[in-house]
Amino acid sequence: MLKWSLRRKAFVIVVSLMLLAVSLALIPSIPKNFISQSNTGTFTISIEMPVGTSLSTTSDVASKIEDILTKDERIESLRTVIGSSQGSFASGGGSDTGSIFVKVKKDYKDDKARVVEDVRKRVTNIDHSAKIAVSGAEQVAGMSNTIEVNLSANSYNDLKAANAVLMNALSKVKEISNVKSNLSESKSELWVEVNEVEAMKQGLTAIQVAAAVRGAVNGESATTIESGGSSIDVIVRLDKNRVKDRDTLASLTLLSPMGKVIRLDSIAKVGMANGPVNITRINQERSATLTMEPVIKNTGAASRAVKDAVKDTKLPAGASAHVGGVTTMMEEGFSSMGMALVVAIVLVYIVMVGTFRSLLHPFTMMFSLPLAVIGAFIALFITGRELGMPSMIGLLMLVGIVVTNAIVLLDLVQQLRAKGYAAYEAIIQAGSTRMRPILMTALATILALVPMAAGRTEGGIISAPLATVVIGGLLTSTFLTLVVIPVLYLTFDSLRNRFGIADTSFAESSEIA
User: Fold this and answer.
1) pLDDT the model gives residue 118
2) For 78, phi and psi rounded to 5 degrees?
3) How many CB atoms lie within 10 A of CB 142?
4) Start-to-end C-alpha separation, the chain
5) Of 39, 286, 264, nearest to 153 (Cα)?
6) The pTM is what?
7) CA Rg, the chain, in Å?
8) What SS3 class is residue 310?
9) pLDDT score at 242
């Protein structure tokens, strides 16, 4: 085989380039993720009711969903949580939100995507006043494949309008589902605007007026009662129901430092308007974050679809949006790993130059890297594994692994050349001598990685793509190295002789031998 290849150098080189081109052409067809998602067979149903909804109403909606889930034979168990302490602090009780955590039976674990889609169709419209979302996303080390779109605007009204426009546009993107926004609903609120001039005439400052209003609404400790060895504060405040009334708050009486009783509306404007429950700012601009989940395995394709939708959506003046979340992590991660690959290749080349005392022969050995890329991408395509961070780490590992085969082969070639062998005879002799150890070393490594590539362990979401890349790269680089590298060596040697360039590496090889 080696003799046949050396007589047809141009054919071997062209075929190798064609294989490389085919493998690179497969890249768009390979799914791309930052990191593969685990499949524990769990998913989540979130319930969001209108602001201020009572706990019992939210619980009734959750009960309707539970009835549907318990009748599904594919569901193993579920757990429901209505409200939370955090929600209570942030949005007035948290009684308007709930979550149902669902676990699929083991037999249907691999078919979880279909279960999630079926449940989504059955529960999302169970109550027209509720926003119900079904999420099948799972996290690995705190990371998920959730795509985010960060939306910013100068004012709340602009942000609200832009949010509605973008939500509508993204809901039409077929590559994603479960589009949600953290822009809170507005609710009625009373506001007080102090007329500082009038307040000063009465001997009051805006801070004093605000403190008096806060005390009337939130209450102040009037006295303390001792009971059973403990102290109990007695809080005095306006009736909660009266606080909701504008006229009641406007008629609130204040005592000025001059001992005069005055009405609040005599020194301030009191009004009622709709306002957000909470406000989020990014870079001092009012912001909202829209989240969505890919419904396809290729997160990269879903991210591109979202980017196109955002780009084609005409937002109100002053509003802007950019894609983040897993999209940003993928871009930054791939860029960092790409730079690491370049640095690794350069370092390996420098080490080999120092070892062989030649610039040409290490360059020849580096051609084993594209030969590994051929198998790596073909393996990912055949197995359907994702090109993500684990796969990139596998490519980084291949830089150090596959070059060793070329080193083992060409090192013996150089030693034989130093003993007086012609280039052709040295290649034939080295090929027959080093073929067995090269094949055995590669085979041992491949077999050791097979259990990892199977992905049956808990860590398979990371180890499987990594092992797949290494196995594929080793398979092609090992067999092609025994053919292509000798062909390239003989080709470059012929060019070197034609241009009269001396090879100073023979002396070093002789000393090593």
Assistant:
1) 86
2) -150, 155
3) 5
4) 27
5) 286
6) 0.66
7) 35
8) helix
9) 65
The closest of 62, 94, 96, 95 to 80, measured between CA atoms, is 62
Pairing between β-strand 176-181 and β-strand 97-104 as defined by DSSP bridges: unpaired
Q: Token pair of 187, please?
A: 């609710």
Say how far apart CA 270 and CA 267 lie, in whole Å: 10
Cβ-based neighbours of 270, under 8 Å, separated by 6 or more = 190, 191, 192, 246, 249, 250, 264
Q: How far apart are CA 87 and CA 278, in angstroms?
A: 12
pLDDT of the residue at 82:
85
Measure Cα distances from 99 to 32, 63, 71, 372 in Å. 30, 11, 19, 47
Query: What pLDDT, in 10s, does the model give residues 288-318?
Result: 888 888 877 778 888 888 888 888 888 888 8
Tracing tokens 């871009």 back to the chain, one arrives at 331
Q: Which residues of the chain fall short of a pLDDT of 50?
A: 85-93, 141-142, 507-513
pLDDT at 512: 42
**CA distances (Å), origin 167, targets 122, 151, 182, 185:** 22, 11, 11, 14
Could you tell me if 16 and 312 are in contact, meaning their C-beta atoms sit under 8 angstroms apart? Answer: no
Distance CA 308, CA 306 (A): 5
The C-alpha atoms of residue 98 and residue 60 are separated, in whole angstroms, by 11
Q: Which residues lie closer than 8 Å to 277 by C-beta, 6 or more apart?
A: 51, 90, 91, 92, 184, 185, 186, 187
Beta-strand runs (E) in 315-438: 320-325
Tokens of 1: 């085989």
Residue type, 288: A
pLDDT score for 12: 83
Distances (CA, A) of 322 to 130, 146, 304, 319: 28, 15, 12, 11
What torsion, rounded to 10 degrees, do the Cα atoms 359, 2, 411, 348 define?
A: 50
Picking from 489, 392, 406, the residue whose alpha carbon sits closest to that of residue 441 is 406
Q: Do you know the residue count of the chain?
A: 513
Q: Looking at residue 415, what DSSP letter applies?
A: H
pLDDT for 378 equals: 92
Ranges of beta strands (E only) in 54-95 are: 75-82
Cβ atoms of 294 and 175 closer than 8 Å: yes
In this structure, are strands 220-227 and 230-236 parallel, antiparallel, or unpaired?
A: antiparallel
CB half-sphere exposure, 180, CA atoms < 13 A:
16
Angstrom CA distances, 162 to 129, 152, 290, 322, stand at: 22, 9, 11, 13
Residues 159, 163, 164, 169, Cα dihedral to 10°: 140
Strand (E) positions, 156-212? 176-181, 186-194
Alpha helices for 96-205 (secondary structure H): 112-123, 156-170, 196-201
Q: Encoding tokens for residue 126? A: 């169970």
